[in-house]
Amino acid sequence: MNLFNKNKHLPAFVLLSSVCFGQYQFEVKNASKSYDAVIQVENCYDGQCNGRGTVDLFDHRNTKVQTFVSDNLVLNLNQDEKPVQGKIFQLKKENGPVVIDDFNFDGTEDIAIRNGNMGNYSSSSYDVYVFNSTKMAFVKSKELTELASDSFDIFEVDAKRKRLIAYGKSGCCDLFTTEYAVIPNKGLDKVFEKEEDMTVEDLVKVTTKEKINNKWITKTKVYPSDQYNRNKK
């Protein structure tokens, strides 16, 4: 699957103005090294905003780049943050519903927009758009959107190894880590899986599967739980 050229036409929401939606307005300065974001969303109450919303992306010269629409643009607020309808509220980047990074390792920034809580165990989920240098616009990636909507929160970007790392869990005691390589003009290639099974008291069973020369190598180890460091590589 082609992550970069799959979409043949710009989505219709590019032509929509954000003034059509939203009652609460937020601004995220320096959302990335290249962009600022202006966010509008329908509802805000009890420390959370959600509902239909828009994200207007601007470059640092204050030129609008593109408008994105989400049916459920969820964002969480700190206790002291009280947005007021009709006034622009300055939002911290870490609280915003926008994640900007180079997801496909082509040297240009891409963008993920919160689309609700459809992830693993009702965690946050995202629509992902990659920058298409031919169209000079962001286009939605089906593969990356599925990955960012099925995992536990958005995937991690390992720029050094050029890997996308997704997490998940089953029940209280079974954790999963999956790594993908991004193949230009093809898509995602799953190259590593790890399962950490803690269903047996005081033990952790770790099963890894790694794709080496197109063959999967499986290893299993069992650790005493008090000696296991899951953050150790």
Could you describe the 3D structure shown?
The chain is built from one helix and 16 strands. It is mainly β and 233 residues long. The longest helix has 9 residues, at 142-150. The chain is globular.
Shape: globular
Strand content range: over 45%
Number of helices: 1
Q: State the total count of DSSP E strands.
A: 16
**First and last CA, distance:** 30 Å
Q: Structural class, please?
A: mainly beta
H/E element order: EEEEEEEEEEHEEEEEE
- Could you describe the largest sheet, including whether it forms a barrel? 6 strands, mixed
Q: Report the mean per-residue pLDDT as an integer.
A: 89
Portion of residues within helices: under 10%
Q: Low-confidence segments, ≥5 residues, pLDDT <50?
A: 4-22
CA-based gyration radius = 20 Å
